[in-house]
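To: structure desk
From: M.T.
Subject: fold request, one chain
Message: Could you run this one when you get a chance? Sequence is below, nothing fancy, just the single chain.
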Amino acid sequence: MNKSFAIAGSVLCIFFFSGCKGNSALQVSQNEDRAAKEMFQGLWMNDGGEDVAFRVKGDTVYYADSLSLPAYFQIFHDTLVLHGVSNVKYAIVKQAPHLFVFVNQNGDQVKLVKSEDPNDLALFEATESRRPVALNQNRTIKRDTVIISSNEKYHCYVQVNPTTYKVIKPSYNDDGVEVGNAYYDNIIHLSIYKGARRLFSKDFRKQDFTREVPAQFLKVSILSDLLFSKTDAEGFHYTASIATPDEPSSFQVDVCVTKDGKLKMQVK
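Reply: Done. Structure tokens follow.
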């Protein structure tokens, strides 16, 4: 069965949390190609049978990468729609019981063949029970710093606490398909004492940096760390790192606590 269609752009919203887009998809669900959806079920390999691309089960696409979130899918006429981080449409070039060819977001044709190897299926089913695997440092980090300033002693305390708050970052797999990878964010506590008197205490979340970091970057980043930088006449300086997981891009924000316990922040 030959199919061709133009690629549509992605809609930047998460399907499960968008009432407007979610309702729209439900309203046209009766127009889905049920036969094509049934034919799409199974484990799909890249042409050559070396790498697992994904497994289709029911109305969900599961990826071999344990970081990638499963995605709800639909098939309309000549188009595969994946509802993941974004709602993305892929033109179907050809579909048969053991063949699926589509155009990815780079405009390249991707040819997949269905695997009937029980070892492949067993391995993939074993990973499904553990997904998604979200990453961060997965451990509490504690740092104590003693600072002498103007002949006065200060004790600075930082604790990086991993949380269960997920950050979903879009990326593209080897087939040029957009997938959502899950990571855990952190909450970082900072306390500063002058002798026995607590001068400053705060739990920092990445939402505290909305004035310093663009919203779109903040959405897909985590509060990675808070490191002591220096002390000067202005106060105690720490560097907060708001980073995109698995990428070198990050925002470095100067977090300054004045000696009277006030907070100032600016991008470095």
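Reply (cont.): Helices lie at 19-27, 34-39, 118-128, 215-219. Let me know if you need anything else for the meeting.
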